[in-house]
Amino acid sequence: MRRGWVLGVLLTGCAHTVVLDSQPPGAQVEVDGNLIGTTPVSFVDHASIRRTYDVVLKLPAHRTKRASLTQQFQVTTLCCPVFLPVGWELPEEHYTWTLEPDDGTKPAVPGLTNAPP
């Protein structure tokens, strides 16, 4: 019975903070379809195993940026319940995307030219 409780605590893992930023700052950020704020913005990742988030950044006069953010499994997240009582914390993870200005043209497609036929 006691081993099951210890295993449950270890598999629960530990939350850590993920910080999302953009250049230029001020973009609206959606994570998995939910608006979470404007850059720079942070959210708490509770996953102790691999987890992928769909991130969308929108800023007026800039192209919308879509990305997948995969949080990798880390042994430290499993050990977190053991180390937190002694003041040990997981570091923040920072991600920054550069948003391209939207000048009204379509993004370049490799291998295609604008030359007349």
Any overview of this molecule?
The protein has 117 residues and is of the alpha+beta class. The protein is built from two helices and seven strands; from the N terminus they run H-E-E-E-E-E-E-H-E. The strands form two sheets. Strands 3-2-5-6 form a four-stranded antiparallel sheet, with no helix packed on it. Strands 4-1-7 form a three-stranded mixed sheet, with no helix packed on it. The protein is elongated. The N and C termini lie far apart (75 Å).
Mean pLDDT: 76
| Rg result | 20 Å
Q: What portion of residues belong to β-strands?
A: 35-45%
Outline the low-pLDDT stretches.
Answer: 5-12
Broad structural category: alpha+beta
- Tell me the helix content: 10-25%
For the sheet with most strands, the description reads: 4 strands, antiparallel
Features:
117 residues; alpha+beta; 4-stranded antiparallel sheet; 3-stranded mixed sheet; 7 strands; elongated
Give the structure's gist in a few sentences.
The protein has two helices and seven strands, in the order H-E-E-E-E-E-E-H-E. Strands 3-2-5-6 form a four-stranded antiparallel β-sheet, with no helix packed on it. A three-stranded mixed β-sheet has the order 4-1-7, with no helix packed on it. It is α+β, with helices and mostly antiparallel strands and 117 residues long.
Question: Which helices and strands occur, and which strands form pairs?
Answer:
Elements: H1 2-12, E1 16-23, E2 28-31, E3 34-38, E4 41-45, E5 51-58, E6 65-71, H2 75-83, E7 93-98
